[in-house]
Structure formats: C-alpha cells, structure tokens
Design goal:
alpha+beta, Metal Binding Protein, Guanine Nucleotide Exchange Factor, Chain A, three-stranded antiparallel beta sheet, 3 helices
C-alpha cells in the first residue's frame, strides 16, 4: 500500500524543483546578454586577456554597466596596463561601484561590482599610474561602450564635460 503523505510530498518536491529550474531558464538577462557577458556579470567569470572587445579600444567615450546602463568609466582614464583587459586609473562616480574582498585565487584581491545591477565587473589593484595609483581591471564583457559623438543621442551628453579635462 502506498503511503499518501509521502507520495504527495514527493510530487510537491518534484513540482518545486521543476518550477525553480524553469525560473532559472527564464532569467531575462540570459536573453539580453551573450553567454560570456552573463557568465562574467552574473557568475563572476573572467574573460580571456587580449581576446576581448575593449582591451585596446582607444576611442573617446563612456563605458557603461552592460546590465543597468549606468556610466562607470571614461576613456580619458583608460590606459594600457599590459594585462589584456581594459584598465582605468579612475572611475566616474565612486558610488557606482562597490568593493569586496575576494580570495578565489588563494590570495586577497578586491572584487568590483556595479552598485546598480550587482554585476561583477573585475578587480581593483593598487599598481596603477598617477594620479590615483589604482588599476580598475575590468572585463569587457561587463561593459557597453558609447562613443563620444554618440553621447548626446544616447542621453549621456552631461558626460561630455569629463573630456574638458583632457
């Protein structure tokens, strides 16, 4: 004879597991982002050095959080760190990025996440150039680039003032 309460529990657990897996599959970010962008921003992955979209981009413009669209970095602060990832010595707004300790590699690093989307961006190191001595080492896959000439049409005209310091 089948024990009805156990059978009902097993059915309920099966339905719950199926529902959870379907929710995971329906993550709207999976439709918005490429697999690499999703892995980097949502699973804290790292893209390959020298094989990413912006490591050698030298155009003037603003780098946005790929998920939220929030401005993070300006090209006037970008420099060639020799690492193969986009590197910046400063950030547009300190409040747009949160820092946390990361021991994944066996030693302490400072992980950077966007405050607006909680997306993984990269890491912060204290070996950058003057005037800050900081190196924001960022995954291209976590960024969207808007060229200087497109800032007005993208609603980002207010950021043109950053280039006056150039």
């Amino acid at each position: 004879m089948i024990n009805k309460p156990i059978e009902c529990c097993l059915i309920a657990v099966s339905i719950l597991l199926l529902s959870c897996s379907q929710l995971k599959e329906k993550d709207p970010l999976k439709e918005k982002l490429t697999k690499l962008q999703y892995d980097v921003t949502q699973n804290c992955s790292t893209e390959p050095p020298f094989q990413n979209e912006f490591w050698d981009n030298k155009e003037d413009g603003i780098y946005l959080d790929i998920v939220s669209g929030k401005p993070l970095f300006c090209s006037i602060h970008k420099y060639d760190s020799g690492t193969g990832w986009p590197s910046f010595y400063d950030i547009i707004d300190e409040e747009s990025v949160k820092e946390s300790d990361d021991y994944e590699t066996g030693y302490k690093r400072i992980e950077l996440k966007s405050t607006s989307s909680n997306s993984h961006l990269g890491h912060l190191f204290n070996d950058g150039p003057n005037p800050t001595g900081r190196r924001y080492c960022i995954n291209s896959a976590s960024l969207k680039f808007v060229k200087y000439d497109d800032l007005d049409s993208e609603g980002l005209g207010e950021y043109k003032k950053l280039f006056d310091k150039k």
